[in-house]
Amino acid sequence: MTPTLQDSPRQGSYSLGQLGRIFWPYFRPFRRQIIGAVLALVMVAGALLVMGRGLAYLVDEGLSKQDPELLNRAVIATALIALCLAFGSYLRTTLVNQVGEQVLAQIRKALFAHVVGLAPGWFETARTGDILARITTDTAIVQTVMTSTISMAARNLILLVGGLVMLVLSSPKMSLVVLLAVPLVVAPMIVLGRRLRKASRLAQDRLADVSVQAEESVSAMRTVQAFARQGLVRDRFDDAVGGSLDAALARVRLRGLLSGIVIFMVFGGVSAILWVGGQDLLAGKITAGDLSSFVFYAFLVAASTGFLSDLAGELQRAGGAAERIAAMLQADESLPQAAIPRQIDAAHKIACRFEDVSFAYPAATARPAVTNVDFTIGHGERVALVGPSGAGKSTLFHLLLRFYDPGAGRITVGGQDIRDLALDDLRRHIGIVSQDTALFSTSVRDNILFGRPDADGADMVAAAQQAEAHGFITELPQGYDTLVGEKGVRLSGGQRQRLAIARTILRDPGLLLLDEATSALDARSEAAVQAALDNLSRDRTTLVIAHRLATVVRADRILLIDNGRIVATGTHEELIVESPLYRHLADLQFSTPDRQAAPAIEGTG
Ligand SMILES: Nc1ncnc2c1ncn2[C@@H]1O[C@H](COP(=O)(O)OP(=O)(O)OP(=O)(O)O)[C@@H](O)[C@H]1O
Ligand SMILES: [Mg+2]
Fold it and tell me: Is residue 256 located within the same domain as residue 109?
């Protein structure tokens, strides 16, 4: 029930080069902006470096010599440098963030496009909350790091190197003090930084757990409330948040400790320089300007070292996020496609055939769901599938739609092996109405048009009429423009089903797969749904998972499935005589002729 951590999509381990190759294509279109940003960055760093010398000039020439003219000039020069600094910062920030936002959008689109194309098997091992976290949080982390963090890193690197050079140039002796101080600053950063990274990764994982819990409970809210289990999901969510909080607090403590140590080291180093330099100043070996510019550069060097160490942790975090995205971008769970796909000739009454098909779900390879299934459904025939729960009826539908490929045997639709067809082409010819209808949170109209978006209004209404849905739709507050709510929650179960039927009628498939609802509807909507299904299946090859007497009686043929095998075929009358299992099922399921007996325990979603 509660998914575990190892359910999350596989995380690969990628080298930096591999990550670069995967993500560079998204940055390539923005080369010009990136070069511009780099130039702006160099300008900013250069201006900052020059500023130290400006400071020395200001102190020595303007202040010490008490020359107002020189002071004016020094101030103007400083102001000009500041202007450069401001302009460069503006340019860098804008360019970098523009590129970042656009790259983020591109990566998100690519990620989603890839996920949408993955085979259903992949989604059985992935957690929805995790997938969402990848598309939103992880991409955002990568964006931040790829743009602001890297540009900050570059800026600080230039400052560090430039600052060191200026230090050595202005006073080799005092540079020695600085160089001695640097390892003292860096050592705790490396040690604490490593622990910080670990703590960050843990915090990210715990945060993902929070979103998984929230997503799961919210999407099953009606079931949760129907069972009065708000307390349970609240506790579970509280646990997840508690775990996330603990991890975050541990990370915050480390971060605080690190920045405290770094600040102490930096100011300690600067004091040491002031002390050494102050003595030189008193002895008249250097000027006040030299000392102030020296302190300025020392500060730059220390600060950029601090920044860089901080950014290293940040880069590490992004590395993790980038790996998760890359793993998802490269998840290869799609079904093999025919190089030159064949076409289905017939548009209507398509025949299909299972040839000795065996199949086990990827999540349960040891136990086949379907074994040696072999049958043909002729042109326009109406075949009912009957069997106990878990027999493998829905699985046959999944195989026909090619959600999975069988382990052995082959399936043909319209005379073609479905592996030789383009997936979209195959699925365009098949209409499915399943027990759990998925509607979208758009209008009634859009939900019907989902079957064939280019259909005109008249066709759409005609489909709704055939699906016995036009009546209730026109009684809705905004008719066809009424919004149905998330997953169609604002409609009744029977209404949802009739919309799904209208959608399939509009699609006009040549092969129809029906999964009759097991949950009971009230007698009136049941009758309406039944009438809609009858309209839908008229003149089409139909394979129906039957739960009603009316359906099996009218079927041309019944396939009795048990344990993944076809155990008997024939008409209702024949099977009643020949098969004890069928008799038993018929007694259980078809005893009330117009309504299915099983009450809906959980018929709330
Ligand atoms: N995604 C899956 N991964 C692993 N096993 C699965 C999966 N889906 C179904 N199964 C298993 O395959 C078997 C056949 O399932 P299937 O859904 O085809 O049954 P069914 O005949 O449609 O039952 P029902 O009448 O209850 O809908 C069951 O034992 C089920 O547990
Ligand atoms: Mg089923």
Answer: yes
Domain boundary residue among 308, 329, 350? 329
DSSP 64: I
Q: Which residues are CB-neighbours of 52 under 8 A, at least 6 positions away?
A: 166, 293, 296, 297, 300
Among the candidates 329, 352, 385, a domain finishes at 329
Say whether pLDDT at 479 is over 80.
yes
Residue 229 forms part of a structural domain = yes
Work out the percent of the chain whose per-residue pLDDT is above 70.
Answer: 93
Query: For the segment 513-558, what is each residue's pLDDT rounded down to a tens digit?
Result: 988 765 555 666 677 777 877 777 788 899 999 887 878 888 899 9
| Domain that residue 384 falls in | 342-429+541-597
Residues 176 and 243 grouped into a single domain: yes
Residue nearest to atom 28 of ligand 1 (CA): 390
Q: From the CA of 388, give the closest atom in ligand 1.
A: 25
Q: What is the pLDDT of residue 470?
A: 92
User: How far is the centre of ligand 2, averaged over its atoms, from the C-alpha of 390 (Å)?
Assistant: 7
| Chain centroid to CA 413 | 34
Number of domains making up the chain: 2
Residue 395 Cα, ligand 1 centroid: separation in angstroms?
A: 6
- Structure tokens belonging to residue 261: 């140590």
CATH number of the domain that residue 377 is part of: 3.40.50.300
- Give me the phi and psi of 557, to 5 degrees please: -155, 150
Kindly indicate the confidence band of residue 300, based on its pLDDT and cuts at 50, 70 and 90: confident
- Please check whether residue 575 lies inside any domain of the structure: yes
The per-residue pLDDT for range 492-501, each reduced to its tens digit, is 888 888 898 8
Q: Kindly state whether residue 556 falls inside one of the protein's structural domains.
A: yes
Alpha carbons within 13 A on the beta-carbon side of 8: 20
Q: Which two tokens stand for residue 414?
A: 């319209």
Q: Whose CA is nearest to atom 1 of ligand 1?
A: 361
CA 516 / ligand 1 centre spacing (Å): 16
What is the 548 CA–ligand 1 centroid distance (Å)? 20
> In this model, does residue 598 exceed pLDDT 50?
no
**Closest-approaching ligand to the CA atom of 373:** 1
Strand order in the sheet with 557-562: 430-433, 511-515, 541-545, 382-386, 557-562, 565-570
* Ligand 1 neighbours (beta carbon < 6 A): 124, 361, 363-364, 369, 387, 389-395
Nearest residue to 305 (alpha-carbon basis) of 186, 479, 437: 186
Instruction: With respect to residue 563, please indicate whether it lies within any of the assigned structural domains.
Output: yes
